[in-house]
Write a structure and sequence with these properties.
- The structure is a single chain.
- With about 80 residues, this protein is mainly α.
- α3 runs antiparallel to α4.
- The radius of gyration is 12 Å and the shape is globular.
- The protein has a single domain, classed as Alpha Horseshoe (Serine Threonine Protein Phosphatase 5, Tetratricopeptide repeat), CATH 1.25.40.
- It contains 5 helices and no strands.
């Protein structure tokens, strides 16, 4: 269903956030980073996108990098 939605609505950053979340759940961090970077390229003001980027970075033990994204998300919420 997600693939069909992306084919029709490829500029909707929320679909790429969802993909990043799925890749994160599956432990595919490289794919998760690519998906969330694309989502943030479409909308860098997404609190969810910034949170996911931070969480993905934390999962890869990149704590210092993660903090700025998590702080940005926290300020937006």
């Amino acid at each position: 269903m997600l693939q069909e939605s992306i084919a029709s609505y490829n500029s909707d950053y929320r679909l790429y956030e969802e993909m990043a979340d799925i890749f994160l759940y599956r432990g595919e961090l490289t794919k998760a980073v690519k998906a969330i970077d694309f989502a943030l390229g479409l909308n860098d003001q997404s609190a969810t996108g910034n949170y996911l980027k931070g969480f993905i970075l934390l999962s890869g033990d990149k704590v210092q990098e993660a903090l700025s994204y998590l702080e940005t998300s926290n300020k937006m919420m």
